């Protein structure tokens, strides 16, 4: 009597698992293209608003603060590229590209927040 390596039930189970994985992957992807705006604050006051989908070339913005900061704006993302503070946490936070992301340089009092379509109105979360 020959023993089958894969039975029909095993094949059906593998197919169902692959289908479930595909559904999870497709549902976790957000909208194909969302308008993202970077908002730069200096001590709570808005100093720049940059629609990232309109950026075509990489450029830097020097922020007038102590310690000095440089913000790099690229097509689709923004980041702190240079900071004269010793901990460099803001620089190590990397590039921001999705709505809701934020990077802060506490010694300089500068923050970058990304807002997307529909994220300006209403609360971020509700707790009870």
Overall helicity: 10-25%
| SSE string, helices as H and strands as E | HEEEEEHEE
Based on DSSP secondary structure assignment, what is the total number of beta strands?
7
Most strands sheet? 4 strands, antiparallel
The chain-level structural class is alpha+beta
Q: What would you say the CATH architecture of the domain at 36-116 is?
A: Sandwich
Question: What is the end-to-end distance?
Answer: 63 Å
Q: Which shape, going by the Cα principal axes? A: elongated
CATH homology-level superfamily of the domain at 36-116: N-utilization substance G protein NusG, insert domain
Work out the helix count: 2
Low-confidence stretches: none
Overall CATH class of the domain at 36-116: Mainly Beta
| Strand composition percent | 25-35%
Tell me the Rg in angstroms: 22 Å
Tell me, rounded to a whole number, the average pLDDT.
86
CATH topology description of the domain at 36-116: mini-chromosome maintenance (MCM) complex, domain 2
Largest sheet strand order: 2-1-7-6
Task: Give a description of the structure.
The chain contains two helices and seven strands, in the order H-E-E-E-E-E-H-E-E. With 128 residues, the chain is an alpha+beta fold. The chain has a domain of 81 residues: Sandwich (mini-chromosome maintenance (MCM) complex, domain 2), CATH 2.60.320.10. The model has no long low-confidence stretch (mean pLDDT 86).
């Amino acid at each position: 009597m020959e023993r089958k390596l894969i039975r029909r039930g095993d094949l059906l189970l593998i197919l169902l698992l692959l289908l479930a994985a595909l559904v999870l992957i497709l549902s976790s992807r957000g909208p194909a293209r969302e308008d993202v705006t970077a908002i730069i604050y200096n001590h709570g006051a808005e100093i720049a608003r940059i629609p990232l989908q309109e950026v075509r070339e990489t450029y830097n913005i020097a922020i007038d603060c102590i310690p000095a900061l440089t913000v790099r704006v690229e097509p689709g993302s923004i980041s702190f590229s240079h900071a004269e503070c010793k901990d460099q946490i803001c620089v190590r936070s990397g590039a921001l590209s999705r709505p809701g992301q934020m990077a802060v340089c506490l010694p300089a009092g500068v923050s970058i927040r990304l807002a997307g379509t529909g994220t300006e109105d209403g609360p971020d979360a509700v707790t009870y």
